[in-house]
Fold this protein.
Amino acid sequence: LTVNTHKGFTFFNRRFILPELRDAVRTTGADVVFLQEVLGAHQRHARRFDNWPQTPHYEFLADNMWTEFAYGRNAVYPDGDHGNALLSKFPILHHENLDVSVGGNEERGLLHAILDVPGREVHAICVHLGLRESHRQLQLQLLCDVVALLPQDAPVIVAGDFNDWRLRADAVLARQGLHEAFVREFGTPAKSFPARWPLLYLDRIYVRNARTRNPVVLSTRPWSHLSDHAPLAVEIHL
């Protein structure tokens, strides 16, 4: 499962809905969850909302269902920080956050984790790329550089918010043998933004040395009211 949490708020930030989002994520039973725009801390919001969790948002979402989690802080500001996170039912052997920000004030990162799936080490990379095309192209190349250093026979999953409404990512990532789950199944990426009326192809799930089945966009209730992005889910077979 991959989902941009929108920092725990609904579209236009009208309501804090992280507890409802946690309930919805739990119903999927996903083994691995890729999160973008997830808060590590926010002091001002913590004072404003009675139901604000005392733990970081990624830990709150993990609860007791995902025993392993990793966080990559991308943006830091006076009240707190946010970034990418990975929740896993498998042990996380190692993780690192790679800063792929390209100037300006758009802090972006790639969170790379190695999962101990029985019999295999699986590389999972949680992605949140920039809004500018020139930035995305540089960030996609940095992602390719990371994937190129991984063992050639290792399963790789790359998922998250690519902001790639111009559909340029597939051709770049194909150079490293990555194929996209929805493109493989339906011939086109998934429409995931805005969540209530998905029109833009922003979110993706790519794999290498693995097979994908039954990709689905979670765009109906309650998902359509829990973020500005519709989550994507897929079965991955090693």
Summary: Residues 59 and 69 are 7 Å apart (CA to CA). The chain has a mean pLDDT of 94. The chain is about 20% helix and 35% strand. Helices lie at 18-28, 43-48, 57-62, 133-148, 169-173, 181-186.
